[in-house]
């Protein structure tokens, strides 16, 4: 399975259609805040944590399309975000159409190993610029 073929606006249409307009950026900011740097103990530690709106958006899209691995042991915030996104999708015909296309593509490119699928999408998110364009860096 190769890299997905991205066209300008592929993800941007999905996210612009208010799928991720969850609480007018409050939930997004809160979730990104959860991923804020926590490595304060050792100033020489080469490991750092950072926030990524692009990674958050891509993983939210995966969850929207049925990525349920470890859902039962995930943080409750994952379920809250999924529910909020679903409410926003249900309130917009444009969001429903964009979600359908995106999830069809995701299903057609799903591999046999969900962990491998996840790692490919994390890599993809790190390769892309942020929303709303999601163009390659």
In short:
55% of the residues lie in helices and 0% in strands.
The total strand number stands at 0
Helix content: 55-70%
Question: In one word, what is the shape?
Answer: globular
**Number of helical regions:** 6
Radius of gyration (Å)? 15 Å
Low-pLDDT parts are 1-41
Distance between the termini: 21 Å
Structural description of this entry:
The protein is an all-alpha fold. The chain contains six helices and no strands. Helix 1 (10-19) crosses helix 5 and helix 3 runs antiparallel to helix 6 (114-127). The longest helix has 16 residues, at 93-108. Residues 1-41 have low confidence and may be disordered.
Descriptive labels:
mainly alpha; 137 residues; 6 helices; globular; 55% helix
How are the SSEs ordered, and which strands pair?
Layout: H1 10-19, H2 26-34, H3 53-64, H4 76-90, H5 93-108, H6 114-127
Helix pairs in contact: 1-5, 3-6
